[in-house]
Structures are given as structure tokens and as C-alpha cells.
Amino acid sequence: MKFVAYYRVSTKRQGRSGLGLDAQRASIEAYVKDHGQILAEFTDITSGRKDERTELNKAIKFARSTGARLLIAKLDRFSRRVSFIARMMESDVRLAIAEMPNATEFQLHIFAALAQEERRLISERTRRALDQAKAKGILLGANGRVLAVRNKAEALVFAQSLSGHLPQNWRSMSYSALAKALNEKGVKTRCGGKFYAQTVKNYMISLHQP
Fold first, then answer.
1. What are the mean pLDDT values of the chain's consecutive 10-residue runs (210 residues total)?
2. Cα–Cα dist 98/88, whole Å
């Protein structure tokens, strides 16, 4: 089977460093190994909220001309908008998802709705965290400070979301053991990469910072 691989990362820093991108490539390469070959690869550096993507349009055009399927690693890496995913599934280009190889169209619609709701909840929690920081007297006027506070708030929200993936006895486990447990479950870091002892430690510290 022929595939056109499409990747998306949210920031230029992720694009340059490979954060998030490497995880997507690994997932797609593992899938293609048993299902066919990749004819071409396209990568957009843009928010999942945006539907207009130059490289995606190129990927769709190439897939259409070669009769290949458009292959993505994860549904939320493609988009978190139900309408966008629905339009894609209704087009003449077939969509394949490496981490959900057996999903039906109905299931994809459900997962898309869940991804959209997750994005809304993350935005809501981040906004509340920023409001709390402002209430504590943290200056939000300068761009650098705003970015720092936002990053801290997003890290805190993500760290809190990890609680559902931790083993019951996680408090007695080392950071290395926790990293191994999260990786074995397929959980990704906030940037889409693997967990390491220091990564886990940083998230735990963020949970206990005032």
C-alpha cells in the first residue's frame, strides 16, 4: 500500500529540535513496516486550531495524484477540530492513522470530538492558571513574562493530567521507574517525546511549586 506521510508540530522550536516530530515519525515508520511504503513526507509547523496548512494541501494533492493514502501518526496531531477531520474523511483521499489502524469512521468522529473537547478544557485550565498567577501579583505585562507564566501554567496542567496514568504505588517509585512505566503505557510528554527521569522530576516539581 502507498502512503503520503503528514506530520504537524505546533512550534518552530519543536520543528528544529525534533521534539514531537521524532515521536510521530517513529509511530508512522512502525506502521508502514507492515503495511506498505511512504512515497513522500510533508510537515506543517502550525497550531492544531488552524485548518489552512500549506504542506497539508501539498500532501493531499500528492496523495490524490498517486492514489496513496494520507498517513498520520495520531488524530490530535492532525487536528483537534471535528469539522476539519470530518471534511477530510469525506474527501476523495483516504486517511490512515498509525496509532489507530483499525478505527472505523464512526470511531474517528468520536475521537475527534474528544480531542476537540480536550483542547477546550486545556485552554480553560490554562486561562484559570494565568488568572491565579495574576491574582498573586505576578506581572503579566511583558511578553517574556507572559510566555514564562503561560508555559508554567501549561506544564502544571499537563502534570496534573498525568495522574491518571501513574501506577498506584507511584509515590514509592523512583523517577526512572516512573518514566519507564509512562513510556510502556505509550504516554507522551507535553512536547510529544519520551519520558526520562529528569522529565518526570520536572513535572513533579511543578506540581508542588506555589
1. 89 52 86 90 76 84 93 79 76 85 74 69 74 65 53 66 76 87 84 82 67
2. 16
